[in-house]
């Protein structure tokens, strides 16, 4: 299921296609002109990175690893696996803080955020990018969309996610099926509208809400979450659920940020460099 979550006005007029040399082949039947960065926040994930990086497509232009001051060989392993990886050392704490640092370091047109514990499959990135180049502004993975799923959701996390998702849909008029999932992608030009300024696991909720408030065209794509391969998660369902609830209430009282118009040099919203 890939529902359009928000409604929008008429499409802008078509402009000329980018030159053929600007396109990067993704499959035998699809090529894109926008560049793609993948942000991977990681803290003590040396054992998991080989599995994560093995799933990342070779056509990705840039991998930004945000290291949360790991005490293992996370950075060394990342550099061995991908010598051209960009490493950002996190100065604050928390997943939200790490993602904000990673987003600021990206140089590509499209930004994809995935986890470093092996729970998100990099081979799904093509679905996110495909949705963006065919018209979406913000693409969110959903474990509850048809074709999605999870090997890791407990009853408590499932119940909390459904309650919080329903609350956001009620307040903001969205049709989300999965609020608290960390696999998302968006056009870099919308960073100001998303304005990630939180520290913890509530970051996914914050981005989903601000994308809706800014009037971005949002699309869900199915995604399958796997269990963490090595180590223990820093997520605490009750504590982080309360932080998510506070974020929902706080954002309800704040006006949305202005959305930057699409650059005139870019391909049109209906066809942003796909061939």
TL;DR of this structure?
It contains eight helices and eleven strands. The chain is an alpha/beta fold and 275 residues long.
- How would you sum up the major sheet? 7 strands, mixed
Rg, please? 18 Å
Terminal CA distance: 23 Å
Please tell me the overall pLDDT: 86
Spatial strand order of the main sheet: 5-4-3-6-9-7-10
Number of E-type strands: 11
Sequence of secondary-structure elements: EEEHEHEHEHEEHEHHEEH
Proportion of residues in extended strands: 15-25%
- Give the assembly state of these chains: single chain
Structural class: alpha/beta
| Tally of helical runs | 8
Shape: globular
Low-confidence stretches: 265-270
Helicity level: 25-40%
Structure, explained:
- The protein starts with 23 loop residues before the first strand and ends in a 23-residue tail after the last helix.
- The protein has helices at 49-55, 74-81, 95-105, 125-133, 155-172, 191-194, 203-213, 237-252; strands at residues 24-27, 30-32, 36-42, 62-67, 86-89, 110-113, 138-142, 149-150, 184-187, 218-222, 224-225.
- The chain is 31% helix and 17% strand.
- The protein has 275 residues and is α/β, with parallel strands linked by helices.
- α5 runs parallel beside α8 (237-252) and α7 packs parallel to α8 (237-252).
- β1 and β2 (30-32) form a beta hairpin.
- A 7-stranded mixed β-sheet has the order 5-4-3-6-9-7-10, sandwiched between helices.
- Residues 265-270 have low confidence and may be disordered.
- The protein contains 8 helices and 11 strands.
